[in-house]
Amino acid sequence: MFSAWKFVETVFAVLPLISAQVLVDLQVAQPPPVPSDAKTCTMKILERTFGNSYYDPEIVSYSPPTDCGTVGSWAAVTLSFTVTSNGTQYDRLGVFTFHNTEIWRTSTPEPTPDGIIWTYTKDVTRYIPLFAKPGTFLLELDNIVTSTLTGEYSTTLYATFYATSKNYPTAGQSNLIVPISTMSDTLANDASVPPAFSLNVTLPQNTVEIYAELYASGNGEEEFWYYNTANEYISDLPPGTTYGEGPFREVRLLVDGQLAGVAFPYAVIFTGGINPAVWQPITAYGAIDLPTYFLDLTPFAPVFADGLPHNVTIDVASAEADHAINPNWYVSGLLQVVTDPSGERTTGQMITYNAQPYATTQTYGNTDANDVNVTVNAQRQICIESMVVSGSGQSNHVIFEQNLDYTNTQYYLNDTYTQNVAQISSGSVKSTHNGVPVVIDNFEYPLFINVTYLDVTDTLITFFTSFDHSYNRQLSPAPFILASDTTERQLATGYFTISTVGNFGSGNNNNTFNYADSEHNTYSRVVDAAMNEIVYNQESGSLASSSSSVSWPVAPSSFSVPPARLPGGKRIGNGL
Fold first, then answer.
1. Preceding amide of 195 cis, omega within 30
2. pTM (predicted TM-score)
3. Range 373-380 average pLDDT
4. CA dihedral in degrees (100, 103, 109, 115; nearest 10)?
5. Given the DSSP bridges, would you call strands 23-24 and 116-123 parallel, antiparallel or unpaired?
6. How is 230-288 classified by DSSP, letter by letter?
7. Is residue 328 reached through a cis peptide bond, with omega within 30 degrees of 0 on the bond before it?
8. In sequence order, what are the beta bridge partners of 312?
9. DSSP 131
10. Which residues of 149-177 are buried (b: 16+ CB within 10 A; e: fewer)?
11. Which residues pair with 461 in a beta bridge?
12. Is the dihedral of CA 159, 163, 167, 170 positive or negative?
């Protein structure tokens, strides 16, 4: 058997040979496709060091700039978030809320004793209707500082506005953005589910198009939801191996109790997840900029057009008989609303409604003396069709369809010393208005994880991990939002030890990323890391910067890193 203490000796031997430097962390992603010849205006939105910051977000007042053209006429808007930290600290979830609307969900890489830094620039052009008016900006980043968790997160957020030019006109935008949120003025506006989150929403009577965007991520017993085992087989595993309620999750959006659409979520792995050593300096895809999910609610426009409050609900459902999940998911959303210039009330009716409340699912497995294998499959078909008639007399024949598939097989082998997951979520989301596609989301999210425990005692856990994780998505969120085609594959392997004398690991991380959009912007990157050092980095495409080369320092994992978070909440002393 692999000797964990031999690994300890090896780590101690190499530490003195490596110079102490600040580690530059990153999530692989395309640079924002912004105008290259436009006048820009940059303003600092906030600056804050988050120490003991639970229930203490940073809240600031915002006013739009007036020196980059007419307010709201911008060609693009970006947010640039820079964070530094040093010491020992868990990764933390961050939520940016603006006008009570979530506009960015992020998380922090875990710091090293010598420090880390990262900067991420996000395209927020689709939120121009919010940036065009004064309001309140809130960043919630809950952190705890103790004698052992010493890391604080020093943050700075800038917004850059791009004026229009001959080649870059005013960006397309909706007339109104309506939050689906807790509407809190003192905390982030995401809601914890279960139970389901609901609120009443009133839209203008001349609403003719509605596009929803959903934010959703698992937390606590739901962080590794793809490792949760079906209740039918949970008793076949040793106590503490994993949580129940199965691995299938769908995020549901309902209007007045009627299902309006669903999302099969992408499995985001945070930097403290399973093996922290493989996520330095390259995080798992989506860890710094979590994906969101888009639905066309235009078939419900005649319903909302009565000017009365309508109940909108977001929840997360499983494949179990009662569709229950564990605590918890954080969810929120928003509606991009297009109105008719006549100001007159929209009319119309729903022609077809084919949407079952929950997905069709199958669960099966087999067990023997040493192994437990469990498979959960799910399928989802939705078709909602309406005729929407604007106050100007224009008719819009709207068809919204979803065809989604999901499969997850868990292999608990060798008395659970080997724990593998093979999961694929895939599907097609399509909405047409008078036969013209306006919302498209074709996706495939393959995920393959191997965790093999090498040494488990009352004082340490040593394990090997491998990840094969992909994000493949052709996305057109709305007629006024840039369409894109993104493929990302991440291969990562490494060892980690949790022990009573400290926690440490080693890993490598290989990424192949490609992006193209409807404005013919392109970006490709192949970047590899080993033992916390970038060993290969090649960028190309129209969005690649000619000065993108960076000196990537070495910064080893050390004994002051927090223990890895493992499926089932596994800890030293609770065995397998």
1. yes
2. 0.94
3. 98
4. -80
5. parallel
6. PHHHHTTS-TTS--SS-S--EEEEEETTEEEEEE-------TTBS-GGGGSSBPPTTSS
7. yes
8. 199, 255
9. H
10. ebbbbebbbbbbbbbbeeebeebebbbbb
11. 456, 498
12. positive
CA distance 197 to 393: 36
Task: Work out the mean pLDDT of the chain and round it to a whole number.
Answer: 93
Q: How far is C-alpha 349 from the geometric centre of its chain's CA atoms?
A: 35
- What is the 3-class SS of 11-61, one letter each residue? HHHHHHHCCCCCEECECCCCCCCCCCCCCEEEEEEEEEEECCCCCCCEEEE
Which pLDDT tens digit goes with each residue over 345-362?
999 999 999 999 999 999
SS (H, E, C) 80-111: EEEEEECCCCCCCEEEEEECCEEEEEEECCCC
For 120, residues 6+ apart whose C-beta sits below 8 A from its C-beta are 26, 27, 29, 80, 81, 106, 288, 289
Q: Taking residues 571-575, report their average pLDDT.
A: 67
Is the alpha carbon torsion for 201, 207, 208, 211 positive or negative?
negative
Which of 33, 26, 35 is closest to 120 using CA atoms? 26
Report how far residue 368's alpha carbon sits from residue 464's, in angstroms, rounded to the nearest whole number.
24
Q: Where are the beta strands (DSSP E) in 297-417?
A: 310-317, 329-339, 347-355, 360-367, 372-389, 395-413
- For residues 389 and 483, give the distance between their C-alpha atoms in angstroms, rounded to a whole number: 26
Look up residue 261 and give its two tokens.
């659409």
Rounded distance between C-alpha atoms, residue 262 and residue 149, angstroms: 38
Question: CA Rg, the chain, in Å?
Answer: 24
